[in-house]
């Protein structure tokens, strides 16, 4: 049983960042790619905390009250996390919008939840929402992170982030509102359900924090680890397992530039952990198989033999039934002579430092799982529901059975 830690004492999400700011202010918190400078930029927890404080002051200056709904339509970015943390600390209720949603869907979600505020990238995105068929009568202010346009759309004001943040520069920290309670809403996350319009799932701080506490006991992060984030933060899987878990454990998080550049990001970031969906693992697997098909029959036979031997070792280590294919007596020889030669190129596709990958959202093909696990790239499947915030079960490091979704958290 995992020993109790400081994470178990948290009751709200802002307490996680407060603890990390106190204990590791100068450690790396986030890493992102700056397209203007054409290089990766590192941000310390202290710098992140200062950004959050500016947003807190501006949101307070706007007159937003406890529980008010505030929407964000942003890709995975430092801006998205800064806004989220500021909203949470001011006891507001974030409403994350899905970046690939239609303008009509975004307008519906803001209208249904009663949003007073929206942060998005540019005026073009806002115009598409404003001109959709669904009005958002509660919306008062829109802020753009990528441009400094200023004006109004009907009665709704809009401006760039720098102008908006400057409105809070004279606000004293002592004037900021008290933080949320355990039963305060931490988010309203819209999920499609099975029929009709999207449904808003109302998640409290207690619910999300409880899930982070459970995750931290099985997704244990250490000094030198770094998470890579590419799944949408508007979904609770990435939001809780990657984002909030990293804040709680003071582990740096790097933002991928997107699925199309994921392979390059692996090489640049060299992550130790990531969350994914099976499709991405299967795409990398298919690319490898295409390469293997061009090899000689003897090379392909060697790769298959090493994978089979590695899978049998994985089964022994995790208490799983062993398959009787191949020649198990030759496994030690195969693995000692050839495993590195076969496994290292596969591991290098993911940066070469991956400890394990957490896969969710759908079932992973067992042949794909056997391939990766057999070469030492451990895949741990998880299952959850948005309403559970979200992880219900996850395969553990020991006793990992890739054709299951593991044990309940």
Short description:
This protein is an alpha/beta fold. The protein contains 13 helices and 17 strands. Strand 1 and strand 2 form a beta hairpin.
Describe this structure in words.
- The chain has helices spanning 14-23, 45-61, 78-89, 103-113, 123-130, 161-166, 205-218, 236-248, 262-269, 278-293, 297-317, 331-349, 366-374, and strands at residues 28-34, 39-44, 69-73, 93-96, 115-120, 141-144, 151-153, 156-160, 185-191, 199-204, 227-229, 253-255, 273-276, 356-359, 379-384, 391-394, 407-408.
- With 409 residues, the protein is of the alpha/beta class.
- The strands form three sheets. The protein has a nine-stranded mixed beta sheet, sandwiched between helices. Strands 4-3-5-6-8-7 form a six-stranded mixed beta sheet, sandwiched between helices.
- Strand 14, helix 13 and strand 15 form a beta-alpha-beta unit.
- The model has no long low-confidence stretch (mean pLDDT 95).
């Amino acid at each position: 049983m995992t020993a109790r830690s400081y994470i178990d004492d948290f009751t709200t999400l802002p307490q996680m960042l407060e603890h990390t700011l106190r204990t590791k202010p100068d450690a790396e918190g986030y890493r992102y790619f700056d397209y203007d400078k054409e290089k990766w930029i590192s941000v310390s927890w202290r710098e992140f905390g200062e950004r959050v404080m500016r947003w807190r002051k501006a949101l307070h200056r706007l007159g937003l009250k406890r529980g008010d709904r505030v929407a964000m339509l942003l890709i995975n970015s430092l801006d998205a996390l800064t806004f989220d943390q500021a909203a949470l600390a001011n006891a507001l209720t974030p409403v994350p919008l899905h970046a690939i949603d239609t303008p009509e869907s975004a307008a519906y979600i803001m209208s249904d939840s009663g949003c007073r505020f929206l942060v998005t990238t540019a005026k073009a995105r806002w115009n598409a929402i404003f001109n959709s068929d669904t009005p958002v009568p509660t919306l008062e202010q829109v802020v753009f992170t990528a441009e400094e346009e200023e004006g109004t759309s009907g009665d709704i004001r809009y401006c760039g982030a720098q102008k908006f943040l400057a409105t809070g520069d004279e606000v004293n920290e002592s004037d900021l509102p008290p933080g949320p309670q355990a039963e305060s809403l931490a988010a309203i996350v819209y999920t499609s359900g099975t029929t009709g319009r999207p449904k808003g799932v109302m998640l409290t701080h207690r619910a999300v924090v409880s899930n982070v506490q459970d995750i931290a006991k099985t997704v244990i992060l250490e000094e030198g680890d770094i998470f890579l984030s590419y799944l949408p933060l508007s979904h609770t899987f990435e939001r809780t397992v990657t984002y909030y878990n990293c804040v709680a454990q003071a582990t740096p998080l790097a933002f991928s530039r997107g699925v199309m550049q994921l392979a390059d990001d692996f090489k640049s970031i060299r992550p130790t952990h990531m969350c994914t969906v099976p499709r991405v693992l299967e795409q990398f697997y298919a690319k490898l198989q295409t390469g293997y098909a061009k090899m000689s029959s003897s090379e392909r036979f060697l790769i298959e033999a090493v994978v089979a031997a590695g899978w049998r070792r994985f089964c022994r280590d995790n208490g799983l039934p062993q398959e009787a294919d191949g020649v198990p007596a030759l496994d030690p020889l195969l693995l000692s002579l050839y495993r590195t030669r076969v496994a290292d190129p596969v591991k290098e596709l993911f940066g070469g430092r991956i400890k394990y990958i957490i896969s969710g959202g759908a079932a992973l093909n067992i042949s794909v799982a056997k391939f990766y696990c057999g070469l030492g790239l451990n895949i741990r499947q998880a299952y959850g529901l948005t309403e559970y915030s979200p992880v219900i079960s996850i395969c553990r490091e020991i006793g990992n059975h890739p054709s299951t979704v593991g044990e309940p958290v």
